[in-house]
Amino acid sequence: QLSNRLMRVAHHVPAGAVVADIGSDHAYLPCYLVLNGIAEKAIAGEVVQGPYDSARNQVIQEQLTGQIEVRLASGLGAVQPQDGVTVVTIAGMGGPLIRTILEQGKERLAGVERLVLQPNVHARSIREWAVENGWSIVNEEILKENEKIYEILILEQTDKTKELSPEELLMGPVLMKEFSAVFQEKWTKECAQWKKIISSMESAEETPELAEKKQELSGKVKLVEEVLKNEN
Ligand code: SAM
C-alpha cells in the first residue's frame, strides 16, 4: 500500500504512460503504476547503491522485471531517447535538488509530455525553473500526511510560458486560487516561523548580511500575509 503522498503523485500519471521515476528508492511508485495498469512500463532511477538494490529487490519480488527496469544513474541520466518516456516523476526530495536534476538533464526531456514533481520543501525553485524553461504548471496539489505538508506540481511543455507573480512563484498559482485549509495552514505556519527568526535577529548585532536577510524575510511575510488576507 502506497503512502497517501505517493498515491496522490500516482493520481497525476495518465493511463498508458511510460514513466521514469527518478530517485525511486524502493520503487514503490513505479510498481504501483504498473500493477494497477496505469503505466505500460517504467524505469526506476537511483544514484545510490542501497536504494538501487532495494528497488531491484522490490521489482523482482513483484515479478515486474519485464515491465520495470531499475537503473543506477544520476538524475535523468537514467533516461535514454529510445525508452520513449512520456512522464517523469520525482518525489520526496527538496525543490532545489529536483530543479538541478531537471536542469542538468534538460536534453533528455525532449519527448516527455508531463512532469509530476513532489518537492518536500522550496517548491518555488521548481516554479522558477518551469517559467525559465518553457514548462507550464497545469495543476498543483497540497496535502497533509503525518503532520507534514507536501506540494505536488504537474508541468507540461508549452510554446507560450506564462509569467508568474512573486506570490504565485512562492505559493503556487493553482494552490493560491484553490485556497484550501491545508494551504492556509502551511503559510500561516511559515509566516509565524519567519517572524520568529526576524525577532531573534533584532537582538543580534546588525551586519549588512543580517539586514539583507531580515529584509528578505519581512518581504516574504508581507507577501504571504497579503495573500492570506485577500482571500479571507
Ligand atoms: N521517491 C521516493 C519517495 O518519494 O518516497 C524516495 C524518496 S528518497 C527520500 C530520495 C531518493 O532520491 C533517495 O533514494 C536518493 O538516493 C535519491 N536521489 C538523490 N539524488 C538523486 C539523483 N541525483 N539521481 C537519482 N536519485 C537521487
From TrEMBL:
Coiled coil: none
One GO-annotated biological process of the protein: methylation
rRNA processing as UniProt keyword: no
Keyword entries, A-Z: Methyltransferase, Transferase
UniProt KW Transferase keyword: yes
InterPro entries tied to this protein: SAM-dependent_MTases_sf, TrmK
Gene Ontology MF, one: tRNA (adenine(22)-N1)-methyltransferase activity
Pfam families the UniProt entry points to: TrmK
Protein name as annotated: tRNA (Adenine-N(1))-methyltransferase
